[in-house]
Amino acid sequence: MPLIYITGISGSGKSSVREELLKRGYETYGTDEDDLAHFYNNETSEPIQHHVTADERTPEWRSQHTWKVQRAAVEKLHEKARLKPIFLCGVVANDADELWDLFDIIFALTVDEETLRHRIVTRKNNDHGKNAHEFANLLEWQKTAAEDYKKLGASLIDASRPLQEVVGEIIRKVETKAKAIVFDIDGTLSPEISWLALTRDLGASVDGHIRIYTDYKEGRATYEESKRQLISTWQATGNATKPFFQKLFADLKLQPNAHDIIAELKKQYIVCLITGSMDLYAEIVAGKVGARQWYANTRLVWSEQDELIDMDYELNQADKKLEQFAQFCAANKLEPQDCIVVGDSENDLGLFKLSGKGILVLGNEKAKEYEQYAWKVIPDLAALKQTIT
User: What gap in Å lies between CA 115 and CA 225, rounded to an integer?
Assistant: First the structure.
């Protein structure tokens, strides 16, 4: 995954681009906003920790200090970018000489002189250029900036245009068009955890279900013991039949507009569901949203009388999802990088890493722990379409 540097002369719009990328769910940093850059004394190499005002930045003072970012700070971002694209917005004096090799993609924002003059005079979030000598230097820099950046290998972006156009062009150039979208179900397409919802709606004890699962997960019970206990719990309700399960699963609600969102996405992408839940539930949800391809962790086994008698379950849902993701890619002649993966839990992180395009849905507090592994983060499913288009 790339580390993308968005640079350009002061007033070209880097801070605005940063804010818009953050709004769109991208992990984005600013040399100024995130306190990565400082003025350094040219003789002592010591950083100036406080903000130096425009009045203090006299020509003499500027000749004795340099605005820089330490290479180690950018190396940390470079390491993080192994998992997902990361943007760094800013301009520093040592970028071309000391940092350039750490960036996979470099964009230089360019503006015409009239736009530059207007932005420097009217902006209130940055005082660079507010004194006469810095303003004069910026106007001189503007004359050669585009050509200078071009020689350094940067891709030029006309930032005199509206912000949405500028950011849209950057994103289009960074992203390879995905061909498929893979959805988790529980916590992503549905607000429910289907296992517990099933137990609840059958009339059995949810606490008892959780206890059975925890004992198995922590090694206090074997797979066969745990499976037998859970099936017996369901059978004791008198409702452990295929028709009853079908009705319960059909009645479980999906996220608002889930059907409409997927219907729209199907016009551009192959859609697949990969869930840690049961095959019958996955089949019913797939039917609701119109997804032709689906994979489930667990196979329910029915008698000739449609009574539940057994199931095949895999405790390591993350590995199972990876196996099924590989099957989906092979069946559709796709590379993992051709797929966007939408999920909400640790079981989806392997798919996030493999595709490089994992979108985390913040449906619960636990999900926030996984933000660092996501390509993009959205508050809910409703934000998905805007995020990927």
Answer: 72
Cα 179 from Cα 337, distance rounded (Å): 9
Cα 109 to Cα 54: distance, rounded to the nearest angstrom: 24
Distance CA 80, CA 122 (A): 36
Say how far apart CA 99 and CA 74 lie, in whole Å.
Answer: 7
Contacts for 61 with CB less than 8 Å, ≥ 6 apart = 52
90, two tokens? 């800013």
Question: Is domain 180-388 given the CATH code 1.10.10.60 in the classification?
Answer: no
Residue 385: per-residue pLDDT: 82
Three-state SS at 215:
helix
pLDDT in tens, 233-249: 999 999 999 999 999 99
Q: Where are the domains of the chain?
A: 3-174, 180-388
Nearest to 149 by CA among 158, 137, 160: 158
Give the tens place of pLDDT for each residue, 281-300: 999 999 999 999 999 999 99
Across 137-167, b (16+ Cβ under 10 Å) vs e yields: bbeeebeebbeebeeeebeebebbeeeeebb
Under CATH, which architecture does the 3-174 domain have?
A: 3-Layer(aba) Sandwich (3.40)
- Single pTM value for the model: 0.60
Look up residue 359 and give its DSSP letter. Answer: E
CA-closest candidate to residue 19, choices 104, 107, 89: 89
